[in-house]
Write a structure and sequence with these properties.
Blueprint (H helix, E strand, L loop, with lengths): L1 H35 E9 L5 E4 L2 E2 L4 E5 L1 E8 L6 E7 L3 E6 L4 E9 L4 E5 L2 E3 L3 E5 L1 E9 L5 E7 L3 E6 L4 E7 L5 E4 L2 E3 L3 E5 L1 E9 L2 E9 L4 E6 L3 E4 L1
Parallel strand pairs: 1-7, 8-14, 15-21
Antiparallel strand pairs: 1-4, 2-3, 2-5, 5-6, 8-11, 9-10, 9-12, 12-13, 15-18, 16-17, 16-19, 19-20, 21-22
Length: 236
């Protein structure tokens, strides 16, 4: 009877020891698992709107709790080159992602004038195309005798800008007798208020057997007055 009791007691002690050992192992595993998980924080500049991927899984925010080991980090943002790194995580880490603007080609096709100047962001362009980072850029095109062209263009791909320059105009106000005949560069005009492209013109007025002629310079946005008396007086 005593032997049976001793054997039962020994068995109970063995079971208790095994349970305690197992519990200790589980606690140690939990501790080790907690210790092996680390925080990875990703800081992104200069983009404001971006998406971070860790192991091809999109993050909500810029921080992730990850196990020790190697992880792939990728950042995507419109207008920027894709950024990626591989990190070997063995502690809490901070990762700086400096995004680079995507570069696109902006080309120009200008009609109505061969003698023009293109300015991009205030700088004169000496070619018909330019490589620019993504985003918004200011464009100005000027040419003698034409209205300046101004616009803003947002680049998110290669673009060709076609511009037809519009001749700048001024007004010629003519004051001559009703029966006088007016010619401008050899072309007859009946009206006395004429819009002309800016530039120099030869003016001739015939009145009976008399005629006189002069030259006037038409300036953009201005009115040039031409008055016939004994002489032709021109005033701007």
């Amino acid at each position: 009877m005593k032997k049976i009791t001793i054997l039962l007691a020994f068995a109970l002690l063995s079971v208790a020891a095994l349970s305690a050992q197992r519990a200790g192992r589980l606690s140690e595993e939990r501790f080790n698992n907690q210790r092996r998980n680390h925080t990875l924080t990703i800081y992104v500049t200069p983009a404001k709107n971006y998406q971070i991927f860790v192991n091809d899984i999109a993050l909500r925010g810029s921080q992730a709790r990850l196990s020790e080991g190697i992880h792939r980090v990728r950042v995507e943002s419109n207008g920027f080159e894709s950024w990626s790194r591989t990190v070997n995580l063995n502690s809490d880490q901070r990762l700086q992602a400096n995004l680079v603007y995507q570069v696109y080609t902006l080309s120009f096709a200008i009609s109505n004038s061969d003698n023009y100047q293109v300015h991009v962001n205030g700088k004169r362009l000496n070619a018909r195309s330019i490589s620019l980072s993504g985003g918004t850029h200011s464009i100005q095109i000027t040419a003698d005798g034409f209205e300046p062209y101004q616009n803003n263009v947002t680049l998110n791909s290669d673009q060709l800008i076609r511009v037809s320059l519009v001749a700048s105009t001024g007004t010629l106000q003519v004051n001559i007798p009703p029966n006088a005949k007016l010619s401008i560069n050899g072309q007859r005009y009946e009206q006395d208020n004429i819009r002309l492209a800016s530039g120099n013109y030869r003016i001739r007025v015939d009145f009976g057997r008399l005629h006189t002629q002069t030259r006037v310079n038409i300036r953009s946005g201005q009115t040039t007055n031409l008055q016939l008396g004994l002489n032709i007086a021109v005033s701007n």
